Amino acid sequence: MKTAFNLIILILILLSCSSNKKILVSDSESEYDIEDILIKTRDGGTISGMIARKKGETSKKTVILQFTIYVRDAGKGTGRDIETIKQSVDKGYIGVIAYTRGKRFSPDEIFPYEHDANDTYDVIDWISKQKWSNGQVGMFGGSYNGFTQWAATKKLHPALKTIVPYVANRPAMGLPMENNVFVNPNYEWSFYVGNDKYLDTLAGNDRQRFRNMMFKWWEIGAAYNKLDSIDNAPNRLFQRWISHPSYDEYWQNMSPYKEEFAQITIPVLSIDGYYNDSQNSSLYYLKEHYKYNPNAEHYLIIGPYSHFGAQRKGAKEIEGYTVDKDALIDTNEITYQWFDYIFKNGNKPKMLKDKINYQVMGANEWGNASSIEKMSNKNLKFYLTNKKAVDFYELNSEKPLKNTFHYQEVDFANREIMNNDYYPSPIIRDEMDKTNGFNFITEPFEEDIIVNGSFMGQLNVSINKKDFDYGVTLYEVMPNGQYFHLSYIVGRASYANDITKRKLLTPNEIEKIPFTNTHLVSKKLSKGSRLLVYINVNKNPFAELNYGTGKEVTKETIHDADEPLKIKWYTDSFVEIPIWKE
Fold first, then answer.
1. What are the φ and ψ backbone dihedral angles of 398, each rounded to 5 degrees?
2. How would you class 221 by CB atoms within 10 Å of its CB: exposed for 0-12, middle for 13-18, buried for 19 or more?
3. How far apart are the C-alpha atoms of 493 and 465, rounded to whole Å?
4. What was the pLDDT predicted at 30?
5. What's the whole-model pTM score?
6. Which of 125, 150, 173, 157 lies closest to 255 in space, CA to CA?
7. What angle, rounded to 10 degrees, do the helices at 116-128 and 144-152 form?
8. Is-contact 534 472, C-beta < 8 A?
9. Which of 140, 276, 398, 442 is the most exposed place for a label (fewest CB within 10 A)?
10. Chain centroid to CA 24: how far?
11. How many whole angstroms separate alpha carbon 386 and alpha carbon 521?
12. CA-CA distances (angstroms) from residue 179 to 242, 252, 281, 398, 513?
């Protein structure tokens, strides 16, 4: 009881602090001074954070800042957050970690993503004015922490000199929706980060609860916006997000958008993975940065890593695939090499041979290019023909002389059948799904090639409804007959041309559905390998279900499934696959 009372008193004291008053957090190791801070923002918000400095150090130093929603400090002066800012001190810097508004000792309400652009600016401004700061700030971190670095560049503070984002999230371009299709993981994540000032690990780890909810929703055919009713737990953040199905100003205000990238002149080092679910978020930043600032100093390291592996040291095996030995890197070590290069006139990390640095799976080597476009020197264009190739159809470089189609019906009322087995788990599989959708396969290659970059294409379709969600997945068919997952896209047809504005399809008319936002990959294909493209309608419990009425998809129910989706996939549809060929 006494302990709880003392904790309440401590919190009250902290919340009453002004931005320039700090509470010393006890630290058993004498070489560090660890201090709590509360920073007032321009609009009256409060940001909680911690500073680590070398004890007795009086000289001004560069500050390494992390800005996160994940509070992994127990309030006892120990924990993962303390250790990470201590490491900055060990590397010769001052370490600061600050938390999204509403977290830890901030009294404000928690709204992930929404205030971070303004709040990171104010935190950097505060840091730059402290007597221990030399006016230079660098940032690093992954996932949400990657997003906050880009948020900090929306209005670039003069003190921010570099960022090192790993697997950076861009809200609405990966999670909570991907290519305008809402996917499920952020439903539970909203409780994990939004339920209290720290992390609600009970909710976050209760996977069975959310699986039960997901499959019940699937079985009863309720509207997607009723997920929290099924869960018996109001989810204010989920409801907030799904009210913005277009990439509108709500999302655009969270990080740089279009011309705002032009003013980002600081050097950037991005780190990502081929099997990072939100890869298209991270690479969006890079592509837009170069689009609006062709002279940007922006480097990329990418390899066979998952979302978490890219933030650490990778993994020897990922989803059943044993990675090449040279793919294993130390992200943290590279990060501080980069900081020393920027701030201490040190050497650039050795692996940065060019702007784009990628591990070639199956070759046990790294490749380098001046841009993503320069990763390849040829595009292979294939059409989705109707000519049979044993169990599949031919993926042929010659456009069919007669434009016919593949016909598919999808009964959204039938919950025993799921469509679109696109996810790379496992990466290597023995069989392809032949129960629905269509598979197209090339002839065996007569020599080694490297698939290098992001494939693209165009689906020419006609449907009897006003919309549908599609999936396109790319595989290597290895000489031994196994299927190696290379890349994929899941998207909404009505947003194919503009993610900011929905344009419904005209029933029974041929429509062109271009797609480009696929996952980047580099993989050596040996002689005798083939490529396979799998197309399907996205219908499964893992994302919202688009019934095609043209109404808000989150409000559609199984009652909108009175007529099956009837789709014609025309054979002049095509894919273009970037390769490197000597």
1. -95, 130
2. middle
3. 11
4. 62
5. 0.94
6. 150
7. 70
8. yes
9. 398
10. 36
11. 28
12. 13, 14, 10, 30, 13
